[in-house]
Amino acid sequence: MAPLVKELERREEIESKVCVTAQHREMLDQVLEYFSITPDYDLNIMKSKQTLTGITNRVLEGLESVFQEEKPDMILVHGDTTTTFGGALAAFYQQIKVGHVEAGLRTFDKYFPFPEEMNRKLTGSLADLHFAPTKGSKENLLREGVNEGHIYITGNTVIDAMLHTVKEDYVFENDELNKIDFEKKKVIMITAHRRENWGEGIENICESLNRIVEANKDVELVYLVHLNPVVKDVVHEKLGGNDRIHLLPPLDTQETHNLMNKSFMVMTDSGGLQEEAPHLGKPVLVLRDVTERPEAVEYGTVKLVGTDIEKIVEEANLLLNNKLAYEKMSKAVNPYGDGKASERIADAILKYFELSDKEVEEFLR
């Protein structure tokens, strides 16, 4: 949302206010600092061992007072977090219009990913404007009965953000990363933390990574380990102590994007990285059985490998050792954006409120 916040600031017809829930405090603060965003409201709801019910309750209660004070014409929410669904529901209770950024993503399985699939589906039911990143996302919304006139294909704002963050001569703030020889080593960037992978899934992923490193002497891994102890404790137990496996805490936006840019490939169970890595020409192995981003699979930029040990090792070794297989994925077209999503969203908002008669030029690929 950061580039969209900046775009709204530039529009004279729009007065925008930023409210954060701080559902994940550390990750949020990194982004706010990098993009020089000072929230007008900070609910600071994060608690130790927080539950989905607790997050939802605190979001609803906190936003109720913010909305009563500001009386906005519209709120914008992004993606599929519990904050997103809670924000849309809080707005609905006060009959405030809702714009959903990154709308229409679906796996059609309410428990994968959990709770994100239902968060975005329920948000879609509450939204008045739907900013779909791709044609496929729009088609999902149309099948659910959404008015076509309220859907805009914008591309994804995450691509907008990357235009500001990636630099070829980048020097990392994390000195451990500066010591890695990205030119001579094949570096694999990894994130894996989704709820549906807790337990056996994370253990399988770790075993796979050990085998990949053992079989490929020119490979180093950089695993950005989620702060949740359910993930962190397992990963450090299974992968710690190997000098070719770097276990780092989550990095800020710029560090993450530039690590991705310097890496050979990406392995992840995240959603956003499935869009970011292809933009940089990096193949992605998705450590999930389903994805809400089927366009990436269709275009050949990502491959679903799940958490089966043999499958992960096989597909990783193929990319590491088969130049043709690697180039086929790395040179595929990224279907997720051209860096102008924020402009399209701002244009659509002005058109919706009849402050502009400019036609919104949609992103089509």
TrEMBL record:
Signal peptide: none annotated. GO terms for molecular function: UDP-N-acetylglucosamine 2-epimerase activity. Pfam families: Epimerase_2. Residues 6-349 form the UDP-N-acetylglucosamine 2-epimerase domain. Its EC number is 5.1.3.14. Keywords: Isomerase. Belongs to the UDP-N-acetylglucosamine 2-epimerase family. This is UDP-N-acetylglucosamine 2-epimerase (non-hydrolyzing). It comes from Clostridium cibarium. The lineage of its organism: Bacteria, Bacillati, Bacillota, Clostridia, Eubacteriales.
